[in-house]
Each structure stands twice: as structure tokens, then as C-alpha cells.
Amino acid sequence: KVKRMVTLSVLVACLLCSLSNAQVQQDSPWPMWGRTSNHSAVSSFDGPRSTCVQSTLVYSYEALSSSTPCISGDNHAFYGTGNADLLAIDLKNGTLLWRFVTGEFIRSSPALSKDNLVIFGSNDGTVRAVHAGNGSLSWKFSVDTYVSSSPVLDQNGSLYMGSGNDVFYSLDITTGRLRWAFRTDNWVSSSACLSELLGLVYFGDEDGCMFAIHTKSGSLAWKYCESSSPVFSSPAMGHDGSVYFGSNDGNYIALDAASGSVRWKINTNSSVSGSAAVYTNYSVICSEAGRVLAISPTGDILWSYQGLGGYTNEATLGLDGTVYVGSEDGEVLALDGRTGKPIWSHRVNNHIASNPIVVEDGRLLVLDLLGNLFLIDDC
């Protein structure tokens, strides 16, 4: 498949993203939730763009699945299920490589380190690292309550994630040793993003607050409280130095990453529990009313698309800016990132609660809520 030409600014942005992720597997097309530590959710590849697409069922597993897979460089997908197990699937032939059983539902989306450790949380109150090659346990860390937050890995060998015991943790990637713990006022299901330049990690809590914590010391840099509505949305870093996130009160907000001051906020008229996908000159959010919006760095709505079903999960973007999103009624949709016009629509079996992912060969990987794993490609 011929790769499309992209602008110099996109290439520079993607290079900066890859450089900021030295502790993830370098040849992985999607090593963790949001792909990069700033959670841009922009792929390194173009996905399907023709008006005709088709899907292939890669693997079926009868268990609820809302964990977004991470993908290794050899095209192995790793994701958690409602059966309390983490699966490793070979995308080339659809075979189950191994499964690792925990004690409870796995909602956390795993991350893949440069040392081939698959790191994830479980509702049994444990963060684990297993070897990607055989699924054997490397280390575990107990927090004594559920962990639905997904880990983010930095370039200095640390990971960061929240928990249901009102504590945000930093652990050593290789050993699982506790580096520091920061107590919030409520539980943290939001998955953190990083600014490697500022040395800050950002996350939201159920009290409606966004926190910025110093990655080295675990001390508070700033705290912004939007309202009493919970912040389920995971923050994403913009190229302009903004932290973007949504709130259950319907607001979509941009804060200055260094100071926490409000740059702008807009009301979407519906809860925004998902995260933004951030391109060079716009970000994309999905509201629970089935609306997909593209917002400029200055807070202007560039376009809005109203779908039939609720788009409760986050959009992901191809390298060329194409928007891919799944819905509650099983629709997978591709929108032109510049105009918001539909390019194609394709229906799979069931509600899509995880994020679509563009993999290395240009196909789109989609996991539905019933555990069916699909690859979508041009006809």
C-alpha cells in the first residue's frame, strides 16, 4: 500500500512523539493507550480510506472486552477481558499465543515496554508485568482495590497510573518497585499523560479535578477543579502546550500545561468521558450523545458530525489525520479530518468500547464488547 505524503510538521510531531517514548517497544505500532506518552492517539500509518471496506474476524473470545489492545512489532495484540484474563493474539494468523489469568475484570489497557513486558492493572487490585513472549509473570504490585486506569511509560524507566483507592502511583517499569504515591480526593480511573519536557504527569479524578504532578518527586505542581462532575476523560497533550480533557458536565477544556490556567473551554451539551485525539492543527473528541467534534487550538469548532449511536469511546487518527471511531451500536466510522465528512461506515457485531487502532499494514484493528477482534481493510 503506497504511503501518502504528509506535511513536514506532521513528521516532526511524530518524531517528537517517538523520541518521548524511549521505554516502550520502539518498533511497536501501538505500544500503549493513546500510542505515545502524550496520548496523541495518532498512528504512524495511514488507515483504510476508500469508500468500500471489508472486515475479517481475526479472533473470537466469549468475554466482555473494553480494554484497548497494545500491539508489538511482530503484530501480536495484548488486551484484557471480563473473564479476568490477559490475552496475546497473533494478528497474522489469529492464534491464541497465551493467556494470563488474574482475579477480576481487566478494564485497564496494557502497555508494552522496551524490555517486552506487558504492564496492566486489574480489578483485583493488582498491577502486573508479564513477559510478552510467554505470558509468565515478571512482577506485581498490590493497591488493594480495583485498577481501571491504564499505565503510561516515560523515558526514564517509570510508569504512572491511578487506582480506586484515591491514590496515583509511580512504579519502576523493570521491577515494579514503588517510586512515589500521591493521594487525591477521590478515585482515579483517568489514564495519565506526560509532558517529558516539563517533567509533569497529568490525570483527572472523580471529584472533577485535573492534577499536574512532578514526575521526579511526586509533588503537586498545580490542580484545576472544573466542577463537581467526575473527570473520567484521560488528558492529552497538544502541540501548543495545552492539556486537553473532557468532563461529565459536558465541557471540553484546554489548560496551560505549565501553569494549569484555563486557555478556553466549550460546552458540547453532553457528557465527555472519552479522551481527545490530537493532530497538529486540531483535536477530536466524542460526546455520549453521538457527536464527534474537531476543535482548533484556539477553541473554535471546526466541524461537527452527528451519528446515530453514541460514540462513547475515543477517536484515533491515521497519520494523514483521518478520524476513526466506534459506536455503541457496532458502527465503525471513518471521517475526513479536515471536513468531518464521512468516508466510510462499517458495522461489526456489537458495541465498541475500546479504541480502533491502525496497524502497520494499514488495516484498522477493532475489538467489540463481546470479545470479537476484527481487521478492517479497503476492498
- Total helix count? 1
Mean pLDDT: 88
Distance, first to last CA: 12 Å
Q: Report Rg.
A: 19 Å
Q: Given the C-alpha coordinates, what overall shape results?
A: globular
The fraction of residues in strands falls at 35-45%
Proportion of residues in helical segments: under 10%
Number of strands: 32
User: Uncertain regions: pLDDT < 50 for 5+ in a row?
Assistant: 1-22
Q: Which secondary-structure class do the elements indicate?
A: mainly beta
Order of strands side by side in the largest beta sheet?
1-32-31-30
Main β sheet profile: 4 strands, antiparallel
List keywords for this structure.
3% helix, single chain, four-stranded antiparallel sheet, 379 residues, 40% strand, mainly beta, disordered N terminus
Outline the structure in words:
By secondary structure, the chain is mainly beta. The chain contains 1 helix and 32 strands. Strands 1-32-31-30 form a 4-stranded antiparallel β-sheet, with no helix packed on it. Strands 2-3-4-5 form a 4-stranded antiparallel β-sheet, with no helix packed on it. Strands 6-7-8-9 form a 4-stranded antiparallel β-sheet, with no helix packed on it. A hairpin with a 4-residue loop joins β27 and β28. It is globular, with a radius of gyration of 19 Å. The relative contact order is 0.16. The N terminus is likely disordered.
